[in-house]
Amino acid sequence: MSIQNLVHPFVTKAQLLGLFNSVSSFKALVDTINKKALEQYPLSKDEENNDDNGGDRNTFKGDAFEMFGEYLIKQFDTDERISIYDYCPNDGKDMGVDGLGIGDDGNPAVVQFKFRANMNEPLTYRDLATFGNDSLANHGIISRSEARRENELMERLISKEKITEDDAKEEGYPFKDSMHNMLVIATTLEVYYTMGEVNRGSRFLGYNHIRKLTQGKPQFWRDFKESIKTSAKRPGKRVCRTLKQHQVDAVDKIKQFFVSDFDRAQIIVPTGGGKTTIEHEAIDELIRMRGNGGVYVVVAPRIALVQQILREFWSIKKSDASWEPICICSGRHEVKEFYEGEEYGDLKPTTALSEIKKAVEKTNDGTNVILFVTNHSVLKIGKVLKELKREAELIVGDEAHNFTADNFQKALDVLKLPTRKWLFFTATRKVDHSGKGKGMNNVNRFGHVIYQISPAKLIQSGM
């Protein structure tokens, strides 16, 4: 036994929750994952009797089991029941394959994890079909007979022996008689069918297999907990960011705008001028002015940009700031950076109206919420705000020139997106002289420019 370096992103959460502190058997591990998942995401029924937290609860269980599986594989990589080396979790799009490695034959190997609360619930063809498809289509999995056949053909090519097309097709294609490098690890006892019916020769490591592999090995469980502890990312200290002079000037103008009767304004800062920092400071200032319990919205045109802005907001959040981020867009679940003395949390992107409503309702107990959203999803926030008879304190439009497009014009209608203030940020202000009023020179839609700095002045300032 030895301590392993775990890279699955769930490891940090496991350490902070102390998830496996009292676990010393596989049964205890499965029970603990089930119990803690229910504590983190309790049963919550909506008006249609659907469990709102069911998806989050299942994600928690799956992530926890995948992290344990990483440790199991690395600890027993030479065991013939596993025989996978250089294992790492799959950080790409989840199409069925949860982990990647190298089999004992030197060819790619893949792993899928399946967590079931009830060990007597067998896995079905549907449970594993996508695993097989993803393995063959995207991860270079070939059968052992195919690998042997390729080696034989290569040797014959090297020896310049003539090979006919019939030789190459002698064993048929694709070869699916020995998919040894496909491994399913599950908390169930069995599958409904022989593994050969889906991917012939692929392997199954179930509840009893794992229990026998790990029982009577107290060092295994001690090293598991120590591996989590040493692999978890340590909380860092927040570094107070000092504003550049042009950012100070911009924030001063924004504060004047906040106490004015105007509801819209524009900030023009070239690329590289720290627009996101100014946006963060604007919201921070308004929270101080308005007090707690407000809804704030940051809108950007692309999912990647929304997540980038959120991460930057989170990294420069002041230690005494009191706001929670919510990402309203599609995307993968990820772990937020966390800092000393602060409560840890997850970032799970969502576009569900029920989740947006929950986020807005958090403000009823004094919580400030910042919703980070794409232009495409922003009207969902408007729908929730109208339903709850609320309005946002501020909406920040990043890369605001995109709002001049026809498909985003509706978002500027206060009847569709109720808010007290709008701030439009861009490096490339788009104007329209056609008289149609779609450009940012339409003060009714975009307000006046209250701060602007040229690229030349920005360079002179040392940026």
Automatic annotation (TrEMBL):
Which molecular function term from Gene Ontology is one that the record holds? DNA binding
Q: Pfam families of this UniProt entry?
A: ResIII (PF04851)
InterPro entries, alphabetized: Helicase/UvrB_N, Helicase_ATP-bd, Helicase_Restrict-Modif_Enz, P-loop_NTPase
GO CC terms in record: cytosol
Q: Which residues form the Helicase ATP-binding domain?
A: 256-428
Q: Which PANTHER family match?
A: ATP-DEPENDENT HELICASE IRC3-RELATED (PTHR47396:SF1), TYPE I RESTRICTION ENZYME ECOKI R PROTEIN (PTHR47396)
What is the protein named?
Answer: Helicase ATP-binding domain-containing protein
